[in-house]
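**C-alpha cells**
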Amino acid sequence: MTDVPSILRAHAEEQHAEELAVLAGTDERPRPPHWRLSPWAVATYVLGGEAPDGTPISPKYLGARRLVEVAIATLATDRALLLLGVPGTAKTWLSEHLAAAISGDSTQLVQGTSGTAEESIRYGWNYARLLAEGPSRNALVASPVLRAMERGGIARVEELTRIPSDVQDALITVLSEKSLPIPELDDEVQARGGFNVIATANDRDRGVNELSAALKRRFNVVVLPLPADVESEVEIVRLRVGQLGETLRLPADEESVAEIRRVVTVFRELRDGVTADGRTKIKSPSGTLSTAEAISVMTSGIALAAHFGDGVVRADDVAAGLHGAVVKDPVADRLVWQEYLEAVVRERTPWSDLYRACRELV
C-alpha cells in the first residue's frame, strides 16, 4: 500500500523551500527592509526563470509579467495590495506565493466570511488569563495582522468584500498609521519595516459588502484577468492538475492534455456566450466556470480513471464534473447545458464520446 503524505497540502514556503533558499543565497540585488528576496527575485520565484547561479525556478503563476511586477512594487511601498478578479483567477494562489517569497511566511491569514469578527483583524483576549492576571500583553491573543506587524511580514486577508463593513474598517488605522492601538493597555503595536497587507476580492461579490471610500484609498488594486487564450488556460490547468496529482499520489496521465483542452474549450465557450469559431451564439450559465473549476473537473477525472478505469482519462471521467460545474441552478442552467450539448457538442464529430457521456447525466 502506497504511503500517504502526512500533510495534504504544504504551505508555499515549505513546498518550494529549495528554490527560495537558492534565490536568497544568490540574489545580490537590494532588498526592502525585512524582505527575504529582492523584488526581482520575488518576480523570478513567482513567474519562473533562472536564479543568478543558473538554477531553474519553476513558474507558480502563469499570467502577465507586468501585473506581477506592479503587485510586487506596491508591496515594496507603504500601500497595501488588493488583488481583484472573478473567481478562479488565482488571486489566493498569487497572494500566498508573494507572501512566501517576501516574508517566508504565508500563514498570517484572515479568511473573510460574513461571520469574521473584528478580533480576527485586531486582537482578542485569553479570558482565563484576563480574569486571573487582569489586562496584560500575556493575556492578549494577537490576530494574524498583529503578528505580521510585529514581525515585519505580510498579512493576507482573503475575500475582503465578504467581511462586514464595520470589521473591514478596522484595517484603516493599520494601513494608514501603521500601528494598532490597544486602549485596554494604554499601548499600541507599531509595524516593523516590511509589514504590508495583501487582500483579495472577486468581481462577482461586488456589492456584498462594499469597501468604504477611506479603505479603498489605502489599497493599490491589481485586476487579475482570466487567461487570454485557450493555450494559456490549457497550460495553467495542466500545470496545476499535475501538481495536485502528485500531492494526492494520482498516477500521471500524459494523454490527458487532449481532455483538458476539451474541458477548457467548453468552459470558455459557455463563459463567452459564443463558440470558439464565433459562428454560434449560446447562452451562459449562472456560474463563473473559472479556471479553478476546470482544474477541479480534471483532477476528479484523473481520480476516476485511476481508481475505476485503466488510468487514461476519457469523456466518461470528466462528464460528471462538467455537469456539476455548469449546472449550478437545476432549472435554468440545466436548459443552458442541454442546448449547448445539442447545438455545439453534438455537431462536433470528434466529440461524439463526450456528447454521449454528458447526455446520460442530463
User: Anything to note?
Assistant: The chain has a mean pLDDT of 91. The chain has two domains: 12-223, 230-359. DSSP finds 16 helices and eleven strands in the chain.
